[in-house]
Amino acid sequence: MRLRINVNLFARQIIDNPAFENITITIILLNSATLVAENPADETPPEMVIVDRVFLGLYTFEMVLKILGMGFIFNSGAYLRSFWGLLDFTIVVSAYFTLA
Fold first, then answer.
1. Which domain holds residue 74?
2. How far apart are CA 48 and CA 52, in angstroms?
3. Taking the CA atoms of the chain, what radius of gyration do you get in angstroms?
4. DSSP class of 42
5. Cα–Cα distances in Å, from 100 out to 13, 64, 85, 96?
6. Cα dihedral sign for 29, 31, 33, 35?
7. Residues 56, 95: contact at Cβ < 8 Å?
8. Among 14, 15, 20, 66, which has the highest number of CB atoms less than 10 A from its own CB?
9. Where are the alpha helices (DSSP H) in 1-100?
10. What are the distances in angstroms from CA 54 to CA 26, 36, 40?
11. Are 85 and 72 in contact (CB under 8 A)?
């Protein structure tokens, strides 16, 4: 129980840090740049598959940190209680369906 509380507090400290939001926005912009560079008519090169999976891993890490720091659904300020959290969760989880 004490470990869980410490993990939650540590995750909250990370997500409340202004640098966390700046890093997240930078990752989104970099991912957008790679999407612009892709040509959907061509076959996806293996390097781009790896890059896409790295971005998915980063988005998953961000989502897990927010869930640990804010709670998932039952707390008043929980991750899924905001529109942006729900949208983020839907996008990240649905991205895993493309891996199959």
1. 2-36+43-97
2. 6
3. 16
4. S
5. 35, 21, 24, 8
6. negative
7. yes
8. 66
9. 2-16, 18-37, 46-70, 83-97
10. 14, 17, 19
11. no
pLDDT tens digits, one per residue of 8-50: 999 999 999 999 999 999 999 999 999 998 888 888 888 999 9
Q: What gap in Å lies between CA 76 and CA 11, rounded to an integer?
A: 17
Assign residue 64 the CATH number of its domain. 1.20.120
Nearest partner of 8 among 59, 66, 58, judged by Cα: 66
- Our count of domains for the chain comes to 1
* pTM of this structure: 0.90
Positive or negative: CA dihedral 86, 93, 54, 31: negative
- Which H or E run includes 41? none
